[in-house]
Design goal:
Elements lengths: L1 H36 L8 H14 L15 H11 L2 H12 L4
């Protein structure tokens, strides 16, 4: 029946949008701890791992499995990021990313 199929598509689209919004909220909640620990070479904390697991499992298929999480230590790349982080353009881009609008 066409009506039932249309309702299913509508429900899938709504669920996809809700999942997308929750993922952005998780990303926003990760920014504070990441900024505090981004120069660290220590393993990820339990708090960081918990937030990452929550964010990934919110948007992945139920059968998906995370086998490991590790902190990426790349000072050169981080230096490049920090050099751009303060620019007005980058701040606008981050704002738009967190609020789900296009660049």
């Amino acid at each position: 029946d066409r009506r039932v199929e249309a309702e299913r598509r509508e429900t899938r689209a709504r669920l996809k949008q809700q999942t997308h919004q929750r993922s952005k909220q998780f990303l926003g909640s990760l920014l504070g701890p990441w900024r505090a620990h981004r120069r660290s070479v220590a393993p990820l904390t339990l708090e960081e791992c918990g937030m990452l697991h929550a964010m990934f499992y919110e948007s992945m298929a139920p059968e998906a499995k995370i086998t490991s999480l590790e902190r990426l230590v790349n000072p050169e790349l981080l230096n490049q990021f920090e050099a751009q982080e303060g620019t007005e353009e980058e701040r606008r881009r981050q704002y738009m990313l967190l609020h789900g609008t296009s660049w």
